[in-house]
Design brief:
Length: 466
């Protein structure tokens, strides 16, 4: 039996080539403990049912202003919830579609609707320990915190995963954006999928898990595919990209999505299987234009796996640079892009008004260059657009107020010889970088920049005196 609790306080396009094998070359794997193997074998011999064991792999997503969805494996199929610990409401879970296949399950999904906004709810799976979730703040609200991480994996394969998830949990975020390459199940095995969703329970019992898909979720369909991920999440405002027939379960829904949280519109972008980015850029324009006209929205933030700018292992994608540049020209509220793919931390100066942050430091091994004395594939010193970078595991925290987004980057676990070589030294938990982003990317008091449409309209006006 299992339950969930969230804290009580309120916080107001890539080249088409396959991903490099180096993504997981430095695995440094740890074999599962013998006791785990014995426990699984004993369960099979005794024929124990799923309800015999506590629910695990528990996480929840924000699906709207008045709704959340809880996903888990095993345990009881009922969620009880309410605004007090009496838990006076209940909902029955169903099997998700598509059905994950990383293990026998059973996998369960419970959609909870009809909630009040900005309200703390207690809830419990099968009468187990209490945890809580909070619905989003009122539209236009602020004072909330989220973290971003990518390239995560599981603790049975990478020793730093557990420490990185613990750092995020200590920050008590409202939600976490996980920007792709979530488990590496296609490279190290299906055990990694289940391990990942148990590792993130350090915070996913208390904060919403909001994902984007990376190449390791789809580009080796003989080893893993998007069923393991689309089947574990109920995403808000889900969108379909064109399907790529070479890769099953691309297209068809939940390829990208968007959601509003307080005064921010968050817009995910898909990974670039054939046709996905061009389709996204066209349709995301409508989503952003709506936010541009919405007085409750102050900021637009995009997030996905591939970087538009990167001096790490995976260079920036010119196609994505172009799409984001065009979207920013038409929608000046777009001020921040969050991504992973390169296993490092890097922040740019504003590029066309948009700050780009690479946060590929969720726990899998860093991707440092060897033999040259410079750990960065993009070379040393850093390129002129790079404001700060660190070959080190970190935790990236974003706090949103009504007139700014504050970024704080905390030092994570240090690397060691042979892998995870660092280019900075820092005490775990100390701040290594901080930054502030203001509306329209401008400092307080500066006038709003004209949109592309406003510039065109101004150009068509006759000159004075004519």
């Amino acid at each position: 039996m299992m339950a969930l609790r969230l804290r009580a306080q309120h916080r107001g396009f890539h080249s088409r080539r396959p991903s490099r094998a180096r993504d997981v070359a430095r695995v440094g794997r740890v074999n599962p403990p013998a006791i785990r193997v014995v426990a699984i074998a004993a369960a099979c011999i005794l024929g124990l049912t799923a309800a015999t064991f506590p629910a695990d792999e528990v996480h929840w997503t924000i699906t709207g202003q008045n709704s959340v969805t809880v996903d888990w494996r095993g345990g009881d199929a009922e969620v009880r919830y309410g605004t007090t610990q009496a838990l006076d409401r209940r909902v029955e879970a169903v099997a998700p579609e598509p059905l994950p296949f990383s293990s026998r399950g059973p996998f369960r999904e419970a959609k909870i609707t009809g909630l009040d906004q900005n309200t703390l709810y207690y809830y419990s799976i099968g009468g187990g320990p209490l945890h809580t979730f909070r619905t989003p703040p009122p539209r236009g609200g602020s004072g909330f915190t989220f973290y971003v991480q990518g390239d995560i994996g599981g603790s049975l394969d990478w020793k730093h995963v557990a420490e990185c998830q613990a750092l995020i949990a200590e920050g008590r975020p409202d939600f976490v954006l996980c920007v792709g390459d979530l488990t590496y199940g296609n490279s190290v095995g299906q055990h990694a999928v289940d391990t990942h969703f148990n590792d993130v329970m350090r915070w996913s019992l208390d904060a919403a898990y909001m994902p984007a898909w990376g190449n390791h979720e789809w580009d080796k369909p003989r080893s893993d595919d998007l069923r393991n991920y689309k089947g574990r999440f109920d995403l808000p405002n889900p969108q379909s990209s064109p399907a790529d027939r070479r890769y099953p379960y691309t297209g068809g829904g939940e390829d990208w999505y968007w959601f509003d949280y307080g005064n921010v519109r968050f817009v995910a972008y898909p990974d670039p299987w054939s046709g996905a980015w061009a389709d996204w850029a066209q349709r995301a324009e409508e989503v952003m234009a709506e936010a541009e006209d919405d007085t409750a929205i102050t900021f637009i933030v995009t997030f996905g796996h591939r970087p538009a700018f990167s001096s790490g292992e995976h260079e920036g994608e010119p196609e994505l640079q172009g799409f984001l540049g065009t979207l920013r020209a038409r929608n000046p509220k777009l001020v921040l892009n969050l991504n992973g793919h390169s296993h490092d931390y890097e922040r740019t100066y504003p590029q066309g008004g948009v700050v780009h942050v690479t946060a590929g430091t969720g726990g899998s091994n860093l991707e440092e260059e060897s033999g040259s004395g410079c750990p960065w594939r993009g070379g040393c010193p850093e390129p002129p657009w790079s404001a700060f970078r660190a070959m080190h595991h970190v935790a990236v925290r974003l706090h949103v107020e009504n007139d700014r987004i504050e970024g704080t980057v905390y030092c994570g676990p240090a690397g060691g010889g042979g892998s995870n070589t660092n280019d900075i030294a820092c005490a775990q938990g100390s701040v290594i970088d901080s930054f502030t982003i203001y509306p329209y990317g401008l400092k307080p008091g500066a006038p709003k920049p004209p949109s592309e449409e406003e510039e065109e309209a101004q150009a068509k006006k006759p000159a004075p005196g004519r």
